[in-house]
Structure formats: structure tokens, C-alpha cells
Design a protein that fits this description.
Chain lengths: ~250, ~350
């Protein structure tokens, strides 16, 4: 078995008396797409905040590429190759699509304390940014204002920005949130393709997408992981059916 | 400190009322607008002597000096999203650098300017590093407090005039030559500083550094998620702006041949904010226009009534209500075509 790229051990987070993350442990292997599913309020977004470093953990460890990153900030984790996208689209609306990606390339390409040369004309940054945009099929939109993109295109740009950071592991927080049928088909195809080159942790509500994409699935209910396994194992797991799929069928 | 938190150093965040990037004033338009303003100012002295009103040059010098200060505040306020309410302290420190050195017989403008820049940069570094630990209204309050500390320090510094201020025995010299003795040379020197500052800040805001600063203003969490720490960028901008405001102070001391703690009062800081907002935050050329409009209005309204500030207040309320992006925003809408 290959070394886990991301190893989470007994991770905890409480808000007051509420245990939002309650002893979560799981591994993400290199080059797998590991989906985390769970009903609303299960603590999925809190977990991704803890993995990305946006939120401090109360206890437990997060190891990335063998090193303990539990105490590192989001900035330090990104620099080590652990990048995230946001559930609620978080892009720079006032900048061009290209600059959104080029900014992420700039963050890892030499000092940003350079004061004279126009950054938008730096070919090295723009070339890498274009490559990231091409992977999400947004290269034809490169010179548009990011704010003018459609919702689905903004979701694609989120992923391109994460790619442009040079990430080894992508934490995708509900990339399909708010997308229509066609938009989500584009994004699912895109993730299918990204699986070839990147390890992905996918948090997603869309079960069809999860079962189509995931190598393994973990099920989070009230801050605890109740099952981890292949999509088939999880689908037939009695606890999962009781806690989650049953609920969905009832709804 | 605080590793692993989502703390961001966005401070005194302001609603983004700057004109959309990509409009006429964002690209060549702003350079053109600035060139027009500089050209109009450059032909002012001959016109003033032709119509026999040499005092016009004195007024214009004052305007140019405050335009430099407003320009520097725009870097902090319009690009860095930091609402600094103590910016006049830097202007005052720069002015005092001239007066204090001059009182000890050091009249060379280069030495004075270096001292002003050094003192202001140091003051900005220390106060900025502390202020940037706070956000929102607290950032406004703490910069106000530091500004007032500088003000009261000068009030109590009786060796250099205290509350009464200090009169310069003569204007600064350059290598022993009294090159700034005349009002017209001082005006052109000030205009040159303004033009260079504009070009410098324009390059800076388009550079790698400026791009991070602009991105941080728009979405600090996104910037952290791609690996930037906003603090260092905002602090650097704060220091650069402080040093440039100090340079404005050097010119102000020479223009008035007098310095006093009043230069550093919080009312002065407020006026600088008004100039930036009136002209259009985050446009560079806007605050230059804002300084011109503010000081001309001040003179003009004072002709009608001693209660001119009331009139100015009404005008400001109307401007804030009915224009987005100040003067620059208005010009933008007049001449700019909406782009797709």
C-alpha cells in the first residue's frame, strides 16, 4: 500500500458544547479521489476548513506528505501543495480570468515584493496560468472579467486557481453547488480528467457525481465518520443506509 | 502568531466604490487625465503673472502639496483597503523634519527630505505593524490615536515652538543654493514631485506587489487560499504611503515657511480622506482631482460666508449620495463606454 498523501487522525473541533468534528480519522492515498459525503449539518465544511488550515483544530493531527501540518496556517499549507476551492464561489471578480489564475502562479514564483514591472505582462506567469485555464477549458475566457462569467464557469475558475497554486492535493468543497444540469456535467467530466494527475478530496452533495467519480467514499454524520470504503461498500453499508441514504429516500 | 486561523488583516474595509477596472480611468485614460491636470498646472505661473495675480502660484503650490498627500493616502485607502485616520501625522512629521533641521542650521533639501522620509517610514512601520493587528473600525480608531499622539508630542515639544509652531528662517537650499527661494521654482519643484509620485505609484499598483494589494482589497480570504499573507503587503504599502506623505510635508513647510502641530491634527487627516473619496478611491488620478476640488471649494465658499464648512458639508453629502467613485467615477461615466 502506498504511503497516504493525507493522513487525518482523531481530528476534533467543538463550538461550545457542539462537537462538530468528533474524532475523525481517515487516509487519502496518492492519486485517489476520496469523497466525503454526509447529510446537511454533518460538519463537512468545518472538516474541510480544518484540513485547509482556515480553522484551528482542537485536537488530533493532519499529516500531509508525511509531515505534521496540524499547526500550520492556510498560507503555509498551500505552499506545501494542499489547495482548496470554496463552496461559495470565491474569486477576484474585478480581475480578468487570466489574472485570477496568474495570481496563484505568482504566489509560488519568486518574490511578490517587486514594485515596477507590470505583473499582468509577465509571460512566465501568464503561460502557466493559461495552462491551468486550459485544463478546465476556460482558456477562451482568459481575458474576460471574472465577475462576468456564468456560475458554472466561475466554479471551473475556482478549480483552475487551485491547480495554478501547483497543488498536489485538491480539496474541493462542493464544486457542483448551485450548478445546473449541463454545468455539472462539464464539471464532473473535468474532475474525471483531473483524477489522472491529482489527488482529490471531494465534498459533494450530488450522489450521482460522487458515485461516478470516487475511488473511496467516507460518510460523515454528526461529526463522526461512520463508514469508509469503495462506493459499492458504502452504498450497501447498513449504518449508511440508516443514517443517510434512508433519509434521502424519505425526502 | 495565530497559525492556522482564518484571520485576515483587512482593515477598515470600505465598500468598493472605485470605478470598475477596465474603464477609461483604469488604463491610458487615467494617464491622460493626469497629463491634462499636470499640463494645466504647468502653464499656471505664466498665466498668473500675465493677469497680475502672483498669489495664484502660492495657492497652486498648496494644492499640489496636498495632492501629493492625498495621492499617498490613496495607496493606503483605495488600494490597501486600510482606512487610516492619521495620515496628516506623516505630513506634519515631514514638515517638522525641515523646521527642526533648519533650526540647527541644516538647510539642504536633500538631507531634510531623507530625514523626513526616514522618520515617516519608521513611524509608519511601527504604528502600521501595531494598527494592522486590528480590523474595521478599530483600525480607524488606532490610526487616529497614533496621529493624535504625534500631534500632542509636537504640541509639548517646546524646544521647537510647541503649540505655537516654528517659523523657518529661510526656505531649504540645494547644495547651498537657494533654489526654492522663489514661489515659482518651489511650485515647479512640487509639481515635479507630484508627477513623479503619480508615475511611481501607477507602476507600483500594476506591479506584482500592487496586484497582491488589489487582490487583498477585493478578497483577502482568496488571497490567503493561494498562499499570500496580506499583512506584509499592507504594511509595506502603509510605509511607502507614509514616506511619500512626509515628502509632501517637506514641500508644505517650504511653502508656508512655518510649521505647527495643526498640520497633524485629526481634522487634517479627515480632510485628506475627503479629498481621496471626493476624487475617487483607488484611481490615483482621482485624489489629485479631489485635492484640487476640495481646496478650491474651500477658498471659493469662504468668499460667501464664514460658515463655509456648512456649504462644503452639504456638497459632500450630495456627492457621496449621487456619485459613485467620486469625481473619477463621474468622469468615467461621462466618457467611458461600458465594456462587456
Amino acid at each position: 500500500m502506498s504511503e497516504a498523501l493525507l493522513a487525518v487522525t482523531d481530528l476534533r473541533k467543538s463550538f461550545g458544547a457542539l462537537h462538530v468534528t468528533d474524532g475523525v480519522s481517515f487516509d487519502v492515498r496518492t492519486n485517489e479521489l476520496h469523497a466525503i459525503i454526509g447529510p446537511n449539518g454533518a460538519g463537512k465544511t468545518t472538516l474541510i476548513h480544518q484540513l485547509s488550515g482556515a480553522l484551528k483544530s482542537d485536537a488530533g493531527t493532519v499529516r500531509f506528505t508525511g509531515a505534521d501540518v496540524t499547526r500550520l496556517s492556510m498560507v503555509e499549507r498551500v505552499r506545501r501543495g494542499l489547495a482548496r476551492s470554496f463552496q461559495i464561489t470565491s474569486i477576484l471578480d474585478g480581475f480578468t480570468v487570466l489574472e485570477n489564475a496568474a495570481m496563484a502562479v505568482q504566489a509560488r514564483s519568486g518574490s511578490s515584493f517587486r514594485f515596477l514591472r507590470p505583473a499582468s505582462k509577465e509571460a512566465a506567469l501568464n503561460d502557466e496560468a493559461m495552462a491551468a485555464l486550459a485544463r478546465v477549458k476556460l482558456d477562451d475566457r482568459a481575458h474576460r472579467r471574472a465577475g462576468s462569467l456564468s456560475h458554472g464557469e466561475k466554479r471551473q475558475l475556482e478549480i483552475a486557481i487551485a491547480l495554478a497554486t501547483g497543488a498536489k492535493l485538491l480539496l474541493l468543497d462542493e464544486p457542483l453547488a448551485g450548478t445546473g444540469h449541463e454545468e455539472s456535467a462539464v464539471l464532473v467530466a473535468l474532475m474525471q480528467e483531473l483524477k489522472q494527475s491529482h489527488t482529490i478530496v471531494l465534498i459533494e452533495h450530488d450522489m450521482d457525481a460522487v458515485f461516478a467519480l470516487a475511488d473511496r467514499v467516507s460518510v460523515l454524520v454528526y461529526g463522526r465518520l461512520i463508514a469508509t470504503g469503495t462506493p459499492e461498500e458504502v452504498r450497501t453499508h447498513p449504518d449508511v443506509r440508516a443514517a443517510y441514504l434512508g433519509e434521502e429516500e424519505a425526502a | 502568531m495565530s497559525a492556522g486561523t482564518s484571520d485576515v488583516a483587512i482593515s477598515g474595509a470600505v465598500p468598493d466604490v472605485a470605478p470598475r477596472r477596465g474603464g477609461v480611468l483604469a488604463g491610458r485614460g487615467s494617464a491622460l487625465a493626469a497629463a491634462l491636470i499636470f499640463a494645466a498646472l504647468a502653464v499656471l505661473p505664466p498665466i498668473a503673472s500675465a493677469i497680475g495675480d502672483p498669489f495664484l502660484v502660492v495657492t497652486a503650490t498648496r494644492i499640489v502639496v496636498f495632492a501629493i498627500a492625498a495621492l499617498s493616502l490613496d495607496l493606503v485607502l483605495g488600494y490597501g483597503a486600510m482606512v487610516s485616520f492619521g495620515h496628516a501625522a506623516f505630513v506634519g512629521l515631514g514638515a517638522y523634519a525641515v523646521a527642526i533641521l533648519s533650526s540647527h542650521g541644516i538647510d539642504d533639501v536633500l538631507v531634510q527630505a531623507l530625514a523626513a522620509i526616514g522618520a515617516c517610514a519608521l513611524f509608519a512601520l511601527v504604528t502600521g505593524a501595531i494598527s494592522l493587528r486590528t480590523k474595521g473600525v478599530y483600525f480607524i480608531m488606532i490610526t487616529l490615536a497614533f496621529g493624535q499622539m504625534a500631534y500632542f508630542f509636537m504640541v509639548s515639544l517646546s524646544a521647537y515652538g510647541g503649540d505655537d509652531g516654528l517659523t523657518l528662517s529661510a526656505r531649504s537650499t540645494l547644495f547651498g543654493l537657494p533654489v526654492l527661494a522663489g514661489d515659482i521654482p518651489l511650485f515647479y519643484a512640487s509639481l515635479a514631485v507630484l508627477a513623479l509620485a503619480f508615475l511611481g505609484l501607477r507602476a507600483l499598483t500594476l506591479s506584482r506587489f500592487g496586484r497582491v494589494l488589489r487582490g487583498t482589497k477585493e478578497n483577502p480570504v482568496r488571497m490567503q487560499a493561494i498562499g499570500f499573507r496580506p499583512f506584509a503587503f499592507q504594511l509595506t504599502a502603509y510605509v511607502i504611503a507614509g514616506a511619500l506623505a512626509g515628502l509632501a510635508g517637506v514641500l508644505l513647510a517650504n511653502q508656508a515657511e512655518f510649521v505647527s502641530p495643526a498640520y497633524m491634527s485629526w481634522q487634517r487627516s479627515g480632510e485628506l480622506i475627503v479629498m481621496v473619496v471626493l476624487g475617487g478611491m483607488g484611481t490615483l488620478v482621482g485624489p489629485i482631482g479631489g485635492a484640487i476640488a476640495f481646496l478650491l471649494l474651500e477658498d471659493w465658499l469662504a468668499l460667501f460666508s464664514e460658515h463655509w464648512k456648512l456649504g462644503l458639508g452639504v456638497l459632500l453629502v450630495l456627492l457621496v449620495l449621487f456619485t459613485r467613485g467620486g469625481i473619477a467615477g463621474g468622469v468615467e461615466r461621462l466618457f467611458g463606454k461600458a465594456r462587456p
